[in-house]
Automatic annotation (TrEMBL):
InterPro entries: TspO/MBR-related_sf (IPR038330), TspO_MBR (IPR004307). It comes from Hoeflea algicola. Coiled coil: none annotated. The chain crosses the membrane at residues 46-66, 78-96, 102-121, 128-151. It is found in: Membrane. It comes from the Bacteria. Belongs to the TspO/BZRP family. Its main location: membrane. It is a multi-pass membrane protein. The keyword Transmembrane applies. This is Tryptophan-rich sensory protein. Keywords: Membrane, Transmembrane, Transmembrane helix.
């Protein structure tokens, strides 16, 4: 690994974790969320921070890999698209109190994640594999988001 590749890796991981943390801290669940009916499978609130931090590290590593190897191609663009969708979900759900719109964003995000995995599978398999836990968690988050929307009609 060259020095510039190491710097790219560090920047992607730090910026991805920082962006996710900033969005998370600026849209902390408040009384509105506490008062919602939630499904039985809703995990405790404390689990989300550690899970997302670990996922953001994996997402950052995959982003750096495809940026280094595929710059100018579609794979980094898909990575940035899924990241943008990821970062707008929390404000839509927790700040705007719109689980319906948040679910639409989450479905688009999952499609971007799955597209990334499919495109990376033959080009950069480690990046595709790094996205598998992310796809699983976002699928679960979609189920949770949908259940909350269903249990709490607007």
């Amino acid at each position: 690994m060259t020095k510039s590749h190491a710097l790219t890796l560090i920047l992607f991981v730090v910026l991805t974790v920082a962006a996710g943390s900033l969005v998370g801290y600026s849209s902390i669940p408040g009384p509105w969320y506490q008062d919602l009916q939630k499904p039985a499978f809703n995990p405790p609130n404390w689990i989300f921070g550690p899970v997302w931090t670990a996922l953001y590290v994996l997402i950052g590593i995959a982003g750096a890999r495809v940026y280094i190897r595929e710059r100018g191609n579609w794979l980094p663009k898909i990575w940035f698209l899924q990241m943008a969708l990821n970062l707008v979900w929390s404000p839509i759900f927790f700040t705007l109190h719109r689980p319906d719109l948040a679910l639409a964003v989450l479905v688009a995000m999952l499609l971007a994640i799955l597209t990334f995995i499919a495109m990376a599978w033959s080009r950069d398999r480690p990046s595709a594999l790094l996205f598998l836990p992310y796809a699983a968690w976002v699928s679960f988050a979609g189920l949770l988001n949908g259940a909350i929307w269903w249990l709490n009609p607007l």
